[in-house]
Specification:
two-stranded antiparallel ribbon
């Protein structure tokens, strides 16, 4: 499993929105500058996040974006699955039942299931708030 730039940048974008929110929407251009990411690429990512209801947008001169929910209501898993799709290491252990004719006799499926469970355990138990807290503690050093 490899997380693409889309998934990594979506996390950085949402962390930035959480860290810098002071009651007013945040301009995507400001996020792009702080994060060193192309604003055109962030526009593509914010569109996905907006359609999923993860962010709210405000149009106009004072417009921008903010989180729709509290940072503790988003998990890394939610964000990565939205931007990346399945994070399963192989198709036979994805959440949807994908029939494999070798499943009954395949000893390696145990490896794939354990890897999948380990990945899900990590990403589903770390929230956006955890990431914000970690970033803030790094900034305090």
């Amino acid at each position: 499993m490899r997380v693409s730039t889309k998934g990594r940048y979506a996390l950085r974008l949402l962390i930035d929105l959480a860290v810098h929110y002071e009651g007013e929407p945040i301009r995507l251009k400001d996020v792009a500058e702080r994060q060193g990411i192309s604003d055109k690429y962030l526009e593509q990512i914010i569109s996905i996040l907006n359609k999923a209801g993860y962010v709210k947008s405000v149009r106009g001169a004072q417009g921008g974006y903010s989180l729709k929910k509290r940072p503790e209501d988003y998990t890394v898993g939610m964000i990565l699955r939205l931007t990346e799709g399945s994070l399963a290491p192989v198709a036979c252990v994805e959440d949807e039942e994908i029939a494999c004719e070798r499943m009954q006799d395949c000893v390696t499926v145990k490896i794939w299931k354990r890897m999948n469970d380990a990945i899900n355990d990590v990403i589903d138990n770390i929230t956006l708030q955890d990431l914000v807290d970690w970033q803030n503690s790094n900034n305090d050093k």
